[in-house]
Amino acid sequence: MTAHRPETLAIHAGTAPDPTTKARITPIYQTSSYVFDDVDHAAGLFNLEVAGNIYTRLMNPTNGALEGKIAALEGGAAALATASGHAAQFLAFHTLMEPGCHIVAAKRLYGGSLNQIGHSFRKMDWHASFVDADDPANVAAAITPQTRAVFIESLANPGGVVQDIAAIADVAHAAGVPLIVDNTMATPLLCRPIDHGADIVVHSVTKFLNGHGNSLGGVIVDAGRFDWAASGNYPYLSQPNPSYHGKVFTEAFGNLAFILACRALGLRDLGPAMAPMNAFLTLTGMETLALRMERHCANALALATWLKAHPKVDWVSYAGLADDPYHPLARRYLGGKGGAVFTFGLKGGYEAGVKLVSAVKLFSHLANIGDTRSLIIHPSSTTHRQLAVADQEQAGAGPNVVRVSVGIEHIDDIIADMAQALEAA
Ligand SMILES: *Cc1c(COP(=O)(O)O)cnc(C)c1O
Predict the structure, then answer these.
(1) In CA terms, which of 135, 161, 275, 301 is 20 to 30 Å from 155?
(2) Is the separation of the CB atoms in 102 and 235 below 8 Å?
(3) Boundaries of domain holding 199
(4) 26 and 154 within one domain
C-alpha cells in the first residue's frame, strides 16, 4: 500500500473493509471497552505482549484506521491519534521532556503553540527558546545540554513562512536532538517532512486533513529512525518503566519505542484520546484531501495575485507567489505551492481591517483555517488583541494585517466577495 501515490493513499491507506461485517467504510466503533478472550489474553494485552484492544482511551479501531492512513501518507513507521492538535504536541513533548529540560522552537508558529510552549509548559518546568529559524545557525546557537527537541512548522501559520527542514534537521541531529515538525498547514500532499530528515511529525487534523470544519483532532507520526537510547537523554524511553514492571521501551519495542510510549504511557495517563466519531469524520474528509489541496492552492494563488494588484492592499505574504522571498523554499519543500492560508496588509490600517471583515459575505469571519469555505480574520481585533501593537507586529499580526484561509468555492465568487468588501473598507 505504501508504494501507492498520495492521492491513492489518502483514499485507501489504513481502511480495509471491516473484517467482521464486511462493511466497506470503516465503522464508528462507538465503544469504550473490549471483551477479553480469557484471563491470559487480558494479561498479555496489559503487558503489551499481545496486540489488541483494551479501552478506547488507549486505542480504538476507527482511530486506528486514521492512524494508519496518516502514517502511510507521511511515510512514517506509525502514528497516534489524539483529541486535538495541541494534545498531539503535548503528548509528543511529554514523552521526551523531564523537568528542567528545554525546547528550541521557531518563533514563527501558530499563536496557540506559542502559548502552549512558552507559557503552559513552564508549569512543568519545561523551558523554551524561540528563535528566527530562517537561519538554522540560530537554532544551533540556542541548543543547550538540556535541549530535548527542536520544533518548527513546515509552512508557518499565519505568515506564509517556509522553513528549511533539511538544514534544521541537520543542526538538531548534530546535537543529538530530534526534529519535530508541525505539518498542519502544508499537509503530506504538499510536504513530507520525514523525507527531509524530521523525526516526528504532528498535525492538527482539525484543519486541512479533516477539511470540513466539523471536528477537532490531532496526530503524532513517528519516523521510527531516532536512536533514543544513544544519549541517555530520554529516560522515559530508555530506562525501566515502573508502571510496566520495569519494561524498557527501547529494548521491548525497538524503533517504535517513541510512538508506543506516547500511547501506552502518555495517552494512558494523561487521557486526551480522539473520539471515534471524530476519527470517522476525518477519515471521510481525507478521501478528498488531494483534490481539495489542489483547488485550495490554485484559489489562494489566484486571490493573492489579484490582491497584490489592488490599490487598497499594501503587501501580500504568500510563498506561492513567484517573487515571494520564501518561494525558493516553497519550490524545494512544497512543490512550488504556498498552501491556502496567507496574510496581507491594508493601506487603511486597523480601521480598514475591521471594516473588511464586517463587509465580507461569502467569507466567514472566524478563528479557524482549512475549511472548504473561505475564512477570514483580522488578528489585531481578535486573536492578537491582548498583545501590545509592537508584539502584534513581531508576531506578523500588526493592526493592518488580515489573514485568509482560501476555500474551494469558485474563484470568481471568492474574488467578487473580496472586491466588494475592499470597496466598503
Ligand atoms: C490549529 C493549529 C494547531 C492546534 O490544533 P488544535 O486542533 O486546534 O488543537 C497547531 N498547529 C497549527 C499550525 C494549527 O493551525
Answers:
(1) 275
(2) no
(3) 14-284
(4) yes
Q: Whose CA is nearest to atom 6 of ligand 1?
A: 85
On whether residue 4 sits in a domain, the answer given is no
Is position 173 within any domain? Answer: yes
Q: Report pLDDT digits (tens) over 126-183.
A: 999 999 999 999 999 999 999 999 999 999 977 789 999 999 999 999 999 999 999 9
- Whether 6 maps to a domain, the answer reads no
- Is residue 82 within 8 A of residue 69, CB to CB? The reply is no
Question: Ligand 1 pocket, 383 CB below 6 A?
Answer: no
Residues 77, 182 share a domain: yes
Contact 204, 82 (CB under 8 A): no
Helix (H, G, I), strand (E, B) or coil at 314: strand
Do 308 and 198 share a domain, yes or no? no
Q: Are 283 and 15 within 8 A, CB to CB?
A: yes
CATH, residue 51:
3.40.640.10
Give me 391's grid cell: 508584539
Q: Is 113 in the pocket of ligand 1 (CB under 6 A)?
A: yes
Please indicate, yes or no, whether residues 268 and 341 belong to a single structural domain of this protein. no
Q: Evaluate: CB of 111 within 6 angstroms of ligand 1.
A: no
- Read off the CATH number of the domain in which 299 is found: 3.90.1150.10
Instruction: Please indicate, yes or no, if residue 5 is contained in any of the structural domains.
Output: no
For 373-402, give one letter per residue: b (16+ CB within 10 A) or e. bbbbbbbbebbbeebeeeebbebbbbbbbb
Residue identified by cell 498552501 is 339
Q: Would the CB of 213 count as within 6 Å of ligand 1? A: no
Nearest CA to 178 among 66, 259, 81, 64? 259
Report the nearest atom of ligand 1 relative to the CA of 157: 13
pTM of the model: 0.97
